[in-house]
Design a protein that fits this description.
7 helices; globular; alpha/beta; binds NADP nicotinamide-adenine-dinucleotide phosphate; 246 residues; 7-stranded parallel sheet; Rossmann fold
């Protein structure tokens, strides 16, 4: 087992990539905090699945765009498990809307959740990690933050470019005790993409070298690699997991 008795917080792990990561971590021996915002039933079912696997988990409702709620989630994790070894900043939102129809409120919400939420969770979790002298933080960015020409998601793309830059700054700030890296997925088969028009999905799939979207499990495996001892000399890196894309 790669994560025996490690304590991991995974934001947004009621569904999608976060859920797959929670289940994979549990199979590797981690005890998991399943964070959710609105999908309570789904979060508790992830907790049940983890218990069936033979590990431990708790579900915590926390809006990661709210600093006071993050502080409470961190405290509840410490009260329950005594420490934090791993934080996966996975929760994210997107509004696919024509660029100049986007409101200031939508811009702020996207930045608050995707970028500032990542900053705040990292700030309060790393305080606890430093007490143990070690920790791993993975920020889920996106290939949209590296090279994107999609005006409908300009706010999302800016937030993810911010997450990539923040990853490098956190890696420097928290070295040598805490390693901070980012996984940048391309297209992944999750609820986030369930309303995309069929012809758009076909056009995008044609551009992917491997000719398919990733499964959330495939993204989870790359996250596991970066939090495992196999990545002991990697920090400040951005791992693109996009199946090749032109
Ligand atoms: N899917 C893709 O193609 C793709 C590609 C590149 C990067 N990503 C990134 O990968 C991450 C996960 O995406 P996904 O596709 O798995 O998304 P998803 O299926 O839509 O799930 C999003 C998760 O984030 C949670 N969440 C949203 N806002 C939150 C908030 N304010 N506080 C706490 N949790 C919140 C949701 O919780 P509730 O349901 O409980 O509200 C849910 O668990 C995101 O950061 C996304 O930007 C996805």
């Amino acid at each position: 087992m790669k994560l025996k008795n490690k304590i991991a917080i995974i934001t947004g792990s009621s569904r999608g990539i976060g859920k797959s990561t929670a289940l994979l971590f549990a199979k590797e021996g981690a005890k998991v905090v399943v964070n959710y915002l609105s999908s309570e039933k789904e979060a508790f079912s992830v907790v049940d699945e983890i218990k069936k696997i033979g590990s431990e988990a708790i579900a915590i409702k926390c809006d990661i765009s709210k600093e006071n709620e993050i502080k409470k989630m961190i405290q509840k994790t410490i009260d329950t498990f005594g420490k934090i070894d791993i934080l996966v900043n996975n929760a994210g939102i997107v509004f696919d809307i024509p660029l100049f129809e986007k409101t200031v409120e939508q811009w702020k919400q996207t930045l608050d959740v995707n970028l500032i939420g990542t900053f705040l969770c990292s700030k309060y979790a790393s305080e606890q990690m430093l007490k143990n002298g070690s920790g791993k933080i993975i920020n889920i960015s996106s290939t949209n933050g590296i090279n994107s020409l999609s005006p409908e998601s300009a706010d999302y793309d800016a937030s993810k470019a911010g997450v990539i830059n923040l990853t490098k700054n956190l890696a420097k700030e928290l070295a040598p005790n805490i390693q901070v890296n980012s996984v940048a997925p391309g297209w992944v088969d999750t609820d986030m993409n369930k309303d995309l028009p069929k012809d758009f999905v076909e056009e995008e799939t044609a551009k992917i070298f491997l000719k398919r979207f990733a499964t959330p499990e495939e993204i989870a495996k790359s996250i596991l690699f970066l939090v495992s001892d196999d990545a002991s000399y990697i920090t400040g890196s951005i791992l693109k997991v996009d199946g090749g894309y032109d």
